[in-house]
Amino acid sequence: MSANAKEQLQNYVDMARRRYDSLADNERLIVNGVGLLVLAALVFVLLVAPAQRSVSEAQLKVSGQQKLVQWMKENESVARMAAGAGTAAVAKSDQPLQTIVTSTAGPLGITVKRYENESDTKLRVWLEKVPFDKTVRWLDQLESRYGVQIISVSIDAEKEPGIITAKLVLQG
Predict the structure, then answer these.
(1) Which long-range contacts (CB under 8 A, 24 or more apart) does 133-140 make?
(2) What is the DSSP annotation of 58-105?
(3) CA distance 86 to 138
(4) What is the DSSP letter of 111?
């Protein structure tokens, strides 16, 4: 702050103080009360309301995560049966893994956000905001029909129940 701005600010503060000192006792009481109300409103607007909003958002996120966990527990047996069925010998496809992945994802409503060849036989795949149940069906189809192996899976739940973002490494 420049010296001139500080001087002007000090002049305004002095003028306000003189005006406050010239008020009657009951007027000072009213000014003090209004000042406290303004201070309380500022504390609420700047501290309490954002904290309440954050807590509410966190509760929504936890609720969504709990629903996803409950759904996963309810469908655990289906996933285990699908995993057990995938152990049967499957003829390996002659198509490139990238072609298999892109051609089978679309009909199930799965959008592959990105894919990257890790080697001749491995493909890293990113899925964003896709239904969990369709993703499980798609992976089962890749495994059972095309002999694609799932090397690694990382799944994150989105805010919307049943919707996920996933990173996969597939080998075919």
Answers:
(1) 133/75, 133/162, 134/108, 134/109, 134/110, 135/110, 135/164, 135/166, 136/75, 136/79, 136/82, 137/108, 138/104, 138/105, 138/108, 138/110, 139/168, 140/82, 140/85, 140/86
(2) HHHHHHHHHHHHHHHHHTHHHHHHHHHHTTS--PPPSS-HHHHHHHHH
(3) 13
(4) -
pTM, 2 dp: 0.48
State the Cα–Cα distance between residues 137 and 82, nearest whole angstrom: 9
Encode burial over 43-72: b for 16+ CB neighbours within 10 A, e otherwise: eeeeeeeeeeeeeeeeeeeeebeeebeeee
How many percent of the chain have pLDDT more than 90? 35
Helix axes 132-146 and 76-85, enclosed angle (nearest 10): 10
- What number of other Cβ atoms are within 10 A of residue 123's Cβ? 24
- Angle separating helix axes 132-146 and 49-74, nearest 10 degrees: 40
Count how many residues are written for the chain.
172
Confidence tier at 92 by pLDDT (50, 70, 90) = low
